[in-house]
Amino acid sequence: MLEVARQRTDIEWVLNDISQVGWNREFDLAVMTGHAFQVLIEDAEVRSSLTAIRAALAEDGRFVFETRNPLVREWERWTLENAVEIVRDGTRVRMASQVDTPNAGDLISFTTTYTSPSWDGPRISRSTLRFLGLRSLSSMVLGAGLVIDERFGDWDRQPLTEASTEIITVARRAGVPTQEATDDPPARHR
User: Fold this and answer.
1) Does 97 share its domain with 169?
2) Considering the entire predicted model, what is its pTM?
3) Which one, out of 37, 56, 84, 105, has a CA that is 20 to 30 A from the CA of 148?
């Protein structure tokens, strides 16, 4: 993803662990995509990342990120029967996922097996993602001193509903949290 982004040479793109760099009010915009937020599986990881992001934002700077909506239960479709095939640079790759059971609360662990006729054997990836509900997500964002300006159900800015596959959050730097957390996805959260 960063390789594609770096095609824009008028923007400085930085790959790093936000909690390790110590930026202070340097950025107007921070973006976290590719469901990277869900890799933060412990509360402490989420809090330290959000706190560091807030510190890196300029006054009124924005943080935009997405996470999958747990109400949709997308992981139930991550089965061997729903494998996906793609062709990239002439190579066909099949990706098949299988969720480990039982699941631990909002944590979903799964194994993805990648195969290709051009490879010697399968490649296996084991992962755990966190599916935070709207109340917990809002609480953590607000607790880090960010204010939630908008919420959407996808990157096309469609309203957030219970059936939305994504929770897109647009938050800004603030001194004191001002918004109450809610479990109910609003049509539009401002």
Assistant:
1) no
2) 0.81
3) 105
